[in-house]
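Please fill in the sequence for the structure shown.

STRUCTURE ENCODING:
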């Protein structure tokens, strides 16, 4: 009898999902299928096992049963109610499938134990779906979080992650920073490559907790900027956005004209609340439980590595 390796289904892999796919390939103990609305050059160049899907329950169920996938991971990052509808379809497809009994929804944020409604966009997308997950009895699931993606400290040609200079306080491409609050609020950051490695290790674990945390480094943005300035030996020009400015934007009328400003203020609020900082005690406990032996990259190590590597 031939042995079939366990199959992992990755949906809407975007940028972060590329790291998970690469680390699953490097691990060599899983087969991988990718669900996407349309293929692209990156997928085609790597001969990825692509399945075109509209993310409906019927479409996802068909792919899960065809591939015999046992684990489903989503990277779908819709910023409106479509997130709930799509993830409910994912979950129901898993529940109805022959073999898929593990599920990781798209979270990848900060301390959702203590700040479940932040950033505010998560309060209207992730939080409602978490309630749906809690009612599921047939699927083992976890919510995986890592704080900020440390890759945002890198130039855009060194990472798969798309720059988000309006959201992330440090813009290495324009070499400038906008400090939200005082800059002394607690934060956490994790390298995307380490996220990928950690996810692979988690897939090998016999059981999961409902929330899973990884962190490469805790600190403040003032401390992180000093690391950048020291390494590159030049000052990083800074502007500031106070908590008062952020709160003022959050009270704008919620119309289409103010939509972007309110969204960004919600991200800034998440930052100044320290909600990006994953809970240290739980994170370190889970590091020993699930990720023992994995070296988590620091900011200094990341930017030093980027100097010699074509892509982190």
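FILLED IN BY: designer on duty
SEQUENCE:
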């Amino acid at each position: 009898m031939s042995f079939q390796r366990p199959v992992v289904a990755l949906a809407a892999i975007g940028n972060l999902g590329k790291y998970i796919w690469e680390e699953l390939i490097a691990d060599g103990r899983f087969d991988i299928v990718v669900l996407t609305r349309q293929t692209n050059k990156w997928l085609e160049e790597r001969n990825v096992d692509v399945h075109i899907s509209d993310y409906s329950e019927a479409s996802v169920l068909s792919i899960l049963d065809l591939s015999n996938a046992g684990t489903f991971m989503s990277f779908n990052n819709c910023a409106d109610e479509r997130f709930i509808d799509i993830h409910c379809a994912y979950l129901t497809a898993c529940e109805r499938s022959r073999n898929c009994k593990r599920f990781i929804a798209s979270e990848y944020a900060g301390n959702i134990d203590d700040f479940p409604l932040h950033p505010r966009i998560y309060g209207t997308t992730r939080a409602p779906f978490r309630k749906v997950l809690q009612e599921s009895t047939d699927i083992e699931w976890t919510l995986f979080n890592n704080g900020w993606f440390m890759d945002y400290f890198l130039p855009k040609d060194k990472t798969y992650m798309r720059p988000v200079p309006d959201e992330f306080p440090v813009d290495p491409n324009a070499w400038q920073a906008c400090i939200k609050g005082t800059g002394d609020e607690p934060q956490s950051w994790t390298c995307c490559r380490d996220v990928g490695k950690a996810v692979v290790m988690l897939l090998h674990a016999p059981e999961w907790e409902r929330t899973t945390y990884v962190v490469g480094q805790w600190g403040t943005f003032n401390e992180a900027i000093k690391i950048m300035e020291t390494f590159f030996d030049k000052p990083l020009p800074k502007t500031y956005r106070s908590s008062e400015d952020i709160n003022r934007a959050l009270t704008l009328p919620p119309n289409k004209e103010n939509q972007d400003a309110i969204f960004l203020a919600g991200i800034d609020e998440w930052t100044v609340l320290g909600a990006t900082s994953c809970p240290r005690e739980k994170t370190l406990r889970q590091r020993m439980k699930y990720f023992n032996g994995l070296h988590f990259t620091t900011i200094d190590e990341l930017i030093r590595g980027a100097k010699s590597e074509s892509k982190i």
